[in-house]
Amino acid sequence: MIKMHINTQQTHGTISRYLYGQFAEHLGRCIYEGIWVGADSPIPNTEGYRSDVLKALQNLNIPVLRWPGGCFADEYHWMDGIGPKSKRARMINNHWGGVEENNHFGTHEFLRLCELLQTEPYISGNVGSGTVREMQQWVEYMTLDGESPMASLRKENGREEPWKLPFFGVGNENWGCGGNMRPEYYADVYRHFSTYVRNYGGNRIYKIACGPNTADYHWTEVLMREAAGLMDGLSLHYYTLPTGDWSGSKGSATEYGVDEWFSTMKNTLYMEELIVKHSKIMDKYDPEGRVGLIIDEWGGWYDVEPGTNPGFLYQQNTLRDALIAGINLNIFHNYSQRVKMANIAQVVNVLQAMVLTEGDRMLLTPTYHVFHMYKVHQDAELLNVSFDSPMYKHGAEMIPQINMSASVDANGVIHLSICNLHHAESASIRCLLEGVEAKQVIGTILAHSSLNAHNTFQQPNEVAPVTFTGAQLEEGELIVELPPASVVVLELK
Ligand code: AHR
């Protein structure tokens, strides 16, 4: 029996809704086919956007959407993607499969998508192969009200009013695909480019600098030392690979056993150590915690679905991905004093996606369901949960079996999201709720008898949330019986 204690009277800051951000790159079938099919497509669409995908994503309450990359961002020239579609320049998408990019989905199409999803845009600018002038003009094009060359061009292209642009990234992975820079060099480049990312009129831009790859603490040190005063956020990228090895096979998305299940859980928990260590460096230069740690790429990354283009990063999504999502979101909540935004990679048809499409069919993945179950935490107040987790042992290794977070929303409703990482053992929890007399507990669970379970176009509801009956209130205590390999969200009121 796990003894747990939650003090509902003391809160620890707000869980930013931006932790539930998404990422859409010009990569494989994410934008084209997955989101944008064009108004003439036989696939039912709204102004060219797939209606089924729009509806599914609207139901997720996505707070922020990152675009156009990724590695694509540092090759993207925004002026190629405005004006009449028939006249837009074509290019080769060098990073992702070498396919033709016709630029039919550009600035106007992205910002309209954000309006349809009621989400806020986060645009990544081109540092690697772009110019300061190009970046400056893009921001002017989108946000300047009144008269200017770029505002006039926007109006000629059919958009009178400027858009609001709350988030802008100055490059992406500039330590790698975005220019192979050293942090000492990029820190100066960031200072230079970001100077021209201007606030026009009432628009206020939260500027995000390219941060470290995984455990590159030197990068964080240099960026914070040299440029913290000019940034609002510093990004961090970390992907969960079952093998932990970028050089060989990353592991199959669906064909795995207990060894790979355990290593995936272990590797995804590593996110916590990364946040703690990067935050410690940030604390040194920014003790008030003004600069946000922005985890704008995360999620599971496996070998591509057999038979698909290796440059398209299309992979299936199983119960294991549900655990990855649940665990990472809990970690982000628990460190939300420093972690201000996160964007899972990616929203449709790429890596750990929310939805997968095939022709005119669409399915919701287990990851989608976790995001849907967890959205009750958006902008709620974090509660501290103290407990000693039993250990999940596998061979000579062990990790905590239980991972969780809790919050209280504006109506006083408490939510607990709990993951049982163990592939075979259930867990019993007895939780003392200090400071609240809850009268009712209801819950939802995502679980399955098979560790490899996933949704297919033939069986799209194989993994789906159902009502959870394993929680009860007994004399002011919450008693929970968690099945193995499960994600549960409880509501107490
Ligand atoms: O999300 C896929 C790719 O992963 C992105 O383009 C890049 O930033 C990262 O390496």
TrEMBL record:
Assigned keywords, A-Z: Carbohydrate metabolism, Glycosidase, Hydrolase
Alpha-L-arabinofuranosidase C-terminal domain boundaries: 296-486
Family assignment from sequence similarity: Belongs to the glycosyl hydrolase 51 family.
UniProt pathway: Glycan metabolism
InterPro entries linked to this entry: Alpha-L-AF_C, ASD1_cat, GH, Glyco_hydro_b
Alphabetized Gene3D superfamilies for the sequence: Glycosidases (3.20.20.80), Golgi alpha-mannosidase II (2.60.40.1180)
SUPFAM superfamilies (alphabetical): (Trans)glycosidases, Glycosyl hydrolase domain
Entry's EC annotation: 3.2.1.55
Upper taxonomic lineage: Bacteria, Bacillati, Bacillota, Bacilli, Bacillales
This protein's record includes keyword Flavoprotein: no
Designated name of the protein: non-reducing end alpha-L-arabinofuranosidase
